[in-house]
Structure formats: C-alpha cells, structure tokens
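Researcher: Next entry in the queue.
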Amino acid sequence: MFEPLLHRDGHISALEHATYQDWWRWVESKAPAMAGVIYLRARPATCLARIQKRKREAEAGIPLEYLQGLFEQHEDWLVHRRTAYGTHNLPVLVLDADADFEGNSALSESMMHKIREFTADPHHYAARHGPGGAELQVPGGCSPQDVRPQNVPASTERNGA
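Model: Structure for this entry, 161 residues:
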C-alpha cells in the first residue's frame, strides 16, 4: 500500500519502484498463502481525526491527501480485488471502522463475532456472505462503488475505480 504512493508522489525513483516490485514478487512466492483478509474500512477523514486525537509525534505531519491515497489503494485491493500484480480471489471481511465502537460493547462484540466466524473458515464464510466473500459494512448503507473519501469530488478519483 505504501510503496505505490511513495512512487506516485516522487519519493521513490522508477528504478527503486521496479526493484521493489521484483523483490515483492520473490517474497510473495516464498510466503505462505493467505487464507483471507479482514479489512477495517475507515474513511480518510476518520483516520485523520483519530491521528489528531492520539497526538503521536510520529504521526503529526500525515496529510489528508496521503490518507486518501492509502484508502484508494486498500479499496482497489480489498473491495475491487485489484493489485499492481493482478487480481485476487481471497475472502475479504469488510468491517465498518468508521463506527465509534470505543465504549460501545454491543458493537464491539458484534464485530468480534464476525471476526471469529470469518477466521474459523474464511472460505466457508465467504461462500455464505456475499459475492467474493465480502460482507460489506459500508457507512451509510451505500454500495462499495459509492464510498469515496470525504471532501473529495468524484472527478478527482482515479480511473477504473
């Protein structure tokens, strides 16, 4: 998620980007296969508000635009199932992390129940819940295609989303 943004923003050269991609393919070929992914989906504005609330020195200068780029990368990977290396069919559990579950034990327990059920058998869970295994908990009840970082007009989104 981070390397493509660093390359896009000019912090990594074309040679470094190509080297990273080659290295990634090698690491991926050696790593055990993932059974599934749990995506805690939070909009960029939510992430920025939480960063500001935590007041960690290392996070102090993170701009909203960077968080929007990370959100787009995660949406491509986990909702649209596209990566720089092709598509995937991993089961994905998408949970609404915009929700304020701090202090809300019912919401926290509901999320933990879904996580326990998903991790017990991601492929079985995927077969029972929605296309491609994603149980979408999208803020506001919209479809995944309607989720856009707050305060970003549709005309500024990347093509193909």
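Model: Helices lie at 2-8, 14-30, 44-54, 64-79, 105-120, 122-128.
Researcher: Noted, moving on.
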